[in-house]
Amino acid sequence: MILALCEILGGCGQQLPIPDPDPSAPVSGETAQGTEETAPGTEESTPGTGETTPGTEGETTPPVEVEPEPTLEAQVTETAAAVGTLTRRTYALENGDTVELLSLEAQGPTTAGAAVYTTTIPSDSVMRLCKADGSGWQETTAAPGTYQTSLLMVDSGEEGSFMAYIPQGWEEKENDCRRNLGIGAVVLTTAEQGGYTLTLTAPALNTGNTAECMLAQSPEALVDWDQKGVPSLWATYTNLGDGRWCYDGYYWITYSNYIPTGPDVYFQMSAAYLCRSMLAMAPYNRLADDLAPCMMDVMAQRQNEYGYFATSAGSEWLLGDYGIGAGFYDTRFNTDLMMMFLDAWERYEFPQFRETAQIYGDFFTAYVQNHSRTTASGGLLVDDYYHPNGNLPTHTSLNHQVAQNILVYRLGAMLNRPDLTALGDRMLLAVVDTEQSWIRPDSSLHYAVYSDGHFGGNDYPYLTYNDLYDMQAYLTETRGSRNESLDRLMASKKAWMDANGVTQYKK
What we know:
This protein has helices spanning 2-8, 230-234, 273-281, 286-300, 316-322, 331-348, 351-370, 398-414, 418-433, 435-438, 463-479, 484-499, and strands spanning 74-81, 84-92, 98-106, 115-121, 126-130, 137-141, 145-147, 151-155, 161-172, 178-183, 185-190, 196-201, 210-218, 243-246, 249-253, 258-259, 265-268, 314-315, 329-330, 372-374, 380-382, 385-386, 396-397, 446-449, 455-458. It is an alpha+beta fold and 507 residues long. It has a domain at 305-507: Glycosyltransferase, CATH 1.50.10. Helix 8 runs antiparallel to helix 9 and helix 11 packs antiparallel against helix 12 (484-499).
């Protein structure tokens, strides 16, 4: 259930701890500088041409150096493999590193062991294999054999380093969902020219199944294993939990009321929380700084023709209550993902991240015209869910409303869109207008306001409080003051949390 997921994640995806900040860590992506064009018919030459300007004999305008816009482009290739077709998505990064996503589609039934990727490593390489339970690492010098892990790190001194999520098998299901078929292995054999041949292999597959993996290579060390907290931090990213990274993005285990559902069935999750963790680590960790933009570029491919990122599975409760089918729009999951795109744009300045945000901003401004309710002073309460094929009006939960309010403000500021800033003001006004209606007799908050105007439902233990906290922090930073209505809502919720022993809230 969608509500259960948000609570499990501690606020729709609580960020894992990151290593101590390194103030000297470089920031990728410089600000691109534009040039001004001269209007037709003017006597002066275009700045930067070096031509003589009338009235200034012998003088020339010095050329203007324009920094190239940072770019991130993937090269996608398909090649024939022994057991099927291998699709490879390759990012050659400016720092000399390479990130690749691979998907091997089986032409027929195959036994375990089909090669997905092969490389050669020096014989003195150090291999680190993440333990399946995320408790740590098995470290060993490279030697022939078969190794079981889901996350492999290889350090080869002057030859550089290598990281790989081991191939996982997938069977496609309805509604763009998939069933996990298990994991492959790492196989080392002696190479003819010395060193070892390292092969990433697939689990057993049937016709049409895929085996997918992601890897990164660098001429330098991808991970500083001596940095405080780094070994235990990376051990949490096993790619074996409820969230899985695949060739085409992030997936999450389905719930019993999802369509389809069943053991090991995953749906396309729009809020790629693994990306958020990578973005958080990027300033301090080379590997995360390599993976984060490439993963965000993969997620950008999921933006649909309407401008939002769909939850692929169907939901029985959304279908039953509101007539919403598979591929629906969830405002909270989209909000969380778009926050990541804005963070990625701020760090890397790759144009596709800004374009993704611009398209979403256009979609959202159109969406609220027909999927919101107006409050007494002209505020807007925005519906939580939507499907382009039509649905009944849905509820507005306080956590969705406040979280996306911050996003709309950020979009307005970063895209220079006064219309979005004005929309953010109306969304905040809606919460102010309805302040007292949110507070329950026990001092907790109602979960949502429904289409008939009544407030009800059980709020999360601390998720909504954290959203209110973030909203106040944003208003304080950008406008220099707090909102009194939000303060009163927070105070009421905190009284309930204190009375019920809830301590995980932001402080």
